[in-house]
Amino acid sequence: MLHTRICDLFGIELPIVSAGMGAVARARLAAAVSEAGGLGTIALAGLSPEAVANEIARARALTSKPFAVNLLIPFMRPGVLELLAREKVCAVTLFWGDPTEQIPPAKKLGLTVIWQCGSAEEAASAKAAGANAIIAQGFEAGGHVCGTTSTLALIPAVRDTIGDLPMLAAGGIADGRGLVSALALGADGAVFGTRFVASHESAAHQQYKRCLLSAKASDTLHTQLFDIGWPGASHRVLRTPFVDRWETAGRPASGNRPEEGKAVARLVRDGIDVPLPSYSVSPPTEDTEGDIGGLAWYAGESVSMISEIASAGEIVRQIAAQAGEIIAKRQRPLRS
Ligand SMILES: Cc1cc2nc3c(=O)[nH]c(=O)nc-3n(C[C@H](O)[C@H](O)[C@H](O)COP(=O)(O)O)c2cc1C
User: Fold this and answer.
1) Which ranges of 88-240 does DSSP label H, i.e. alpha helix?
2) Using one digit for the tens of pLDDT, what is the confidence trace for 200-229?
């Protein structure tokens, strides 16, 4: 009942995609989503070709089903696209750059390219450059947000612009109601980010996951505050006590902010030990040690709909069951 052309394009059962989420969406999460019939995505932002190969191997050890990978263009390392082509990944999601420059080289390598964008104009450029599918990301989204239009208005505008090119909606969607709405607006499926941060398989720090359960949409902030490592890029985060202290200080500019310049946390993983300063672009993960309060606790407005940490497979099944029920039952009165 939920089968759409996105399912045919990627060889999946359900039009449910987990977002590429830097440091949080790793092989374990992507594999769990794909095993449940959706399309899991591994975030590979900034990783070397060797690290990318390891992450893909980890996912393939956990599932034989298709999964996608995600690259943030400002952090793309040389050789990674070629490696993804050699690995024959199902699809690569690209975000934050000029589609006319970035898509043709990826297509030339034989990759299936999904372009995440925040406007109908950008979607049109991505289509002209050869994108196989579009993710239209609304302003409500968690993490880095490239546009200014909310999902409800963006999806129909992008659909009207790109004709019948496959499209996924992202931003503000956390359950079956959101998925059905996205389909009604013209999308062929939906991308879920924040919902999967609060899953057992995400690599987010436990404290960060727990905070999502009580947070509401109004507890999120669209800002450029967490700029160390990626200046001038807008994102949506939770209003943590750390964010409150910055606001109370009068929202001072970068360089003059409270607790600025202190390396309070560390990322310790696979033999590396990297200091993470306050206002760092990094979210707190299971590999972060020290004081995580000054890091970016990314969350979208969809956080209002999250009340439990569940396994990723269970989340996929709940979304599908709720969407199926809405389509089968609640719309019946509209038809008779
Ligand atoms: C913790 C977190 C990290 C993110 N990191 C990335 C990333 O590395 N690459 C990317 O393309 N999008 C990233 N995003 C944005 C997602 O791809 C997606 O657009 C967004 O999560 C959708 O909104 P939602 O959180 O309301 O579901 C991130 C989102 C979150 C919540």
Assistant:
1) 99-108, 120-128, 151-162, 176-185, 194-197, 206-214
2) 999 999 999 999 999 999 999 999 999 999
Question: Would you tell me how many other CB atoms lie within 10 Å of the CB of residue 210?
Answer: 13
Q: Give the distance (Å) from ligand 1 centre to CA of residue 141.
A: 7
Q: Report CA(197)–ligand 1 centroid distance (Å).
A: 9
Pick the CATH number of 5-201+307-335 from 3.40.50.300, 3.40.190.10, 3.20.20.70, 3.30.40.230: 3.20.20.70
- Indicate if the pLDDT at residue 24 is higher than 70: yes
Helix/strand/coil for 29: helix
**Structure tokens of 247?**
């606001």
Give me ligand 1 centre to Cα 95, in Å: 10
Spell out the domain ranges in the chain.
5-201+307-335, 206-302
Largest Cα span, the chain: 64
**Distance, first Cα to last Cα, the chain:** 19
> What is the rounded CA–CA span in Å between residue 319 and residue 192?
10
Q: Which atom of ligand 1 is nearest to the CA of 303?
A: 26
**Averaged pLDDT, 7-35:** 98
